């Protein structure tokens, strides 16, 4: 099984095959507009503006699993992000990332992604104690996928989008 074998739901709850992203570098992020990390939407949009299109796509999956920080409908979330942060990357339907209702894509990402998590120096001790393992611990966990569909990096919620740019740059080259 590969990442391209999965289907996800778009904002209108229609199936979208990830096959359409084959050959592109992907940054897959579970987000929440009311999360303390929500200002990262700006950095994510900057990455999308810089690299989006031919070789790179950013896939946004809102999740309300962490302290109800993604309330509202799919449309309300998308509108809030577009108006507040100017996002233009694709936002998908709200999902669960953990538990029995986690979507198959996230089960795959957690099981097949790197067990090593990239975090900031400040997070180093916290990461060792709390964030290692398969479970998604909070919103704005990020997975970087290369052009062949291999999950190459997993970044902690506190790892800023601008610090991911060097890894994207290497993969799109």
From TrEMBL:
Query: One matching Pfam family, short form?
Result: GSHPx
Domain of life here?
A: Bacteria
Quote one Gene Ontology molecular function term.
Answer: peroxidase activity
Keyword Oxidoreductase assigned to the entry: answer is yes
Q: Which Gene3D superfamilies match?
A: Glutaredoxin (3.40.30.10)
Active site, renumbered: 35
A GO BP term here is: cellular response to oxidative stress
InterPro entries linked to this entry: Glutathione_peroxidase (IPR000889), GPX_CS (IPR029760), Thioredoxin-like_sf (IPR036249), Thioredoxin_domain (IPR013766)
Q: Cite the entry's keywords alphabetically.
A: Oxidoreductase, Peroxidase
Protein family membership: Belongs to the glutathione peroxidase family.
Show the PANTHER family listed in the entry.
GLUTATHIONE PEROXIDASE (PTHR11592)
Question: What name has this protein been given in UniProt?
Answer: Glutathione peroxidase
Originating organism: Mariniplasma anaerobium
